[in-house]
Design goal:
Layout: E1 3-7, H1 12-28, E2 31-38, E3 45-47, H2 60-82, E4 90-96, H3 99-110, E5 114-118, H4 134-141, E6 146-149, E7 160-164, H5 175-184, E8 189-196, H6 202-215, E9 222-227, H7 231-241, E10 246-251, H8 256-262, H9 265-272, E11 277-281
Helix pairs in contact: 4-9, 7-9
Length: about 280
Amino acid sequence: MQNILVPTDFSPEAHNAFEVAMQLASRTGGHITLLHVVDAPRSSGIVSTGGTAGAAPMNGVFMVQLLQRTKRRMHELMAEVASDRPEVPVQDRIATGDIDEAVLDVIRERHIDLVVIGAHVHAPDHSVFGHISHAERLVRLAPCPVLTVKRPAPDFNVHSIVFASDFSAEADRAIPSLRQLCAAFPEAILHLLDVVTTAHNSGAALERIHSFASRHQLAAYEPDVVSAPRVSTGIPRYTDQAHADLVVMLTHGHSGIWHFLQGSIAETVAVQAEAPVLTFHI
């Protein structure tokens, strides 16, 4: 988690994400790319100071002025947030075109290993029939882990990490990331959470948790099994009540009709839980 991308639209939520990313980079010795995407649907590409990429259909003078204003705002944001941590290198990037495509292009181009994005907290009745936020789409589409931040965290001190899973064989893929997090936050308590939809499954869920911990020699952990009508609501309810500092989840990253039919628990939790949520694909 050293090569970090922070997309920004200059909103308070994006500001929160930038603050958290700076603190993570300071802990891990990482560096940050701060990205803003200019809404220019007929043009596309990464641009740098004083230049454009694919901007011919737009008025040239207007585009240059827009990019100059954007560059100033980027530098103001960097001066405000990054000045307290001069040890963290920050590079600004400006792109034009579709925001999802631009973010994915930068992820591939710069070999990003973590995206930190700001988001609004959505109500539990938020559904696939409503508005799907950029944060949710990024959780689904990004090939690298995504950390979704909803609240200000000027002091991102993680004392409680919740790994929410069904602890099937797929959960084993989370171990490298869990070890990285525990190394970055050695004071944190690791909670292994399984949400069951019927209470009589609690015993089997607890056995799966202990088996997972034993396989990977996790000496210090807290097993937690809770019952809820839906896993997607049970996880944020538990993490909010437990005042978790960080939630970790796997996602399959389905798209198209499969995603419409099945939905994504990770996407839902990412925008419903108060705590930052780290998701990564399996």
